[in-house]
């Protein structure tokens, strides 16, 4: 089974305009790394609107093409930090839950709520117990540290409801703030909630060595390799890094993910799945991967965490 453990539905009115502008600015840099020149305006007017997918129709089609059996959709709550979206966070959570319910064999929804919101814990609880969502996504780039005591009631609730927490980690595009996203801020959380399953998204990207150092001593920490599509054009770098991640964390705590649709243009899910699936045969850089390791990463680990 292949599980995309980290994906999003993008809808213009679900995030403040400042974020779409920031995304376009960052995409210019990503494009440049693979030799494509573009302006933020090009990306803002041509590529980003293509990502909007209010019914998950595009997501499902892409997942089907890539051979992904199940996709976890994570709600992103940036409103407190960068300005509210046109659609409330409660409505966004409900929409994700409804979409997952309409495609129970393919889609799973995780709630997203900023811990600083009034009634955050109640909304999160409603998402899980009434709307059937399966976990919590935290995006601290909106302006809080993951180990701030303001977040603790959400961790306590996640533990009580027995669901995993995905935390964005790694440098993040403006207007979100990277300083809140370093994986060291998970250290207190992992220590104070040793029974809580915490997934550090993107293996913290540029801070991946810090992330795996923390994961190495905290068995309740997992990492997902979403966003690493950016490294696929550099297969030697990808293979050496992933080998180091597995050696440090263990192949049983690494999860596949795409962070779709953000990386659709440089590396669509079909390409990323093909790349990771082919690692036992095609690894370069003097490292090797076993079929069992890759199978666990592509789906077995997520299957266990999500109790599928
Ligand atoms: Zn994401």
From TrEMBL:
Q: Which domain of life is it from?
A: Archaea
UniProt keywords, alphabetically: Hydrolase, Lyase
* UniProt keyword Manganese, yes or no: no
| A GO molecular function held by the record | carboxy-lyase activity
In the UniProt record, does the keyword Lyase occur?
Answer: yes
- Residues of the Amidohydrolase-related domain: 3-308
Name the InterPro entries for this protein: ACMSD, Amidohydro-rel, Metal_Hydrolase
The cross-references to Gene3D superfamilies, in alphabetical order and at most eight, read: Metal-dependent hydrolases
Note one Pfam family from the annotation.
Amidohydro_2
Q: What is this protein called?
A: Amidohydrolase
Q: Which organism is it from?
A: Candidatus Methanolliviera hydrocarbonicum
């Amino acid at each position: 089974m292949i599980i995309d453990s980290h994906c999003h539905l993008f809808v213009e009115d679900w995030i403040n305009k400042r974020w779409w502008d920031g995304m376009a600015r960052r995409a210019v840099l990503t494009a440049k790394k693979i030799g494509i020149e573009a302006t933020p305006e090009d990306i803002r007017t041509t590529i980003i609107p293509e990502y909007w997918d209010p019914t998950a129709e595009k997501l499902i089609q892409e997942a089907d093409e890539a051979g992904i059996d199940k996709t976890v959709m994570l709600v992103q709550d940036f409103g407190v930090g960068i300005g509210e979206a046109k659609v409330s966070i409660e409505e966004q959570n409900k929409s994700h839950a409804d979409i997952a319910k309409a495609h129970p064999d393919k889609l799973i929804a995780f709630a997203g709520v900023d811990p600083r919101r009034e009634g955050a814990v109640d909304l999160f609880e409603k998402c899980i117990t009434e709307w059937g969502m399966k976990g919590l996504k935290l995006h601290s780039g909106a302006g809080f540290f993951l180990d701030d005591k303001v977040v603790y009631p959400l961790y306590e609730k996640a533990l009580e409801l027995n669901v995993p927490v995905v935390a964005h980690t790694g440098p993040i595009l403006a207007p979100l703030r990277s300083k809140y996203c370093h994986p060291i801020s998970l250290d207190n959380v992992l220590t104070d909630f040793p029974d809580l399953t915490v997934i550090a998204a993107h293996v913290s990207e540029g801070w991946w060595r810090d992330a795996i150092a923390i994961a190495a001593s905290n068995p309740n920490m997992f990492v997902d390799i979403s966003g690493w599509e950016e490294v696929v054009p550099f297969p030697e770098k990808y293979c050496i890094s992933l080998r180091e991640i597995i050696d440090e964390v263990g192949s049983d705590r690494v999860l596949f993910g795409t962070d779709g649709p953000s990386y659709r243009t440089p590396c669509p899910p079909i390409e990323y799945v093909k790349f990771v699936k082919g690692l036992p045969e095609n690894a370069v850089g003097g490292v090797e991967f076993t079929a069992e390791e890759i199978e666990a990463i592509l789906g077995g680990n997520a299957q266990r965490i999500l109790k599928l």
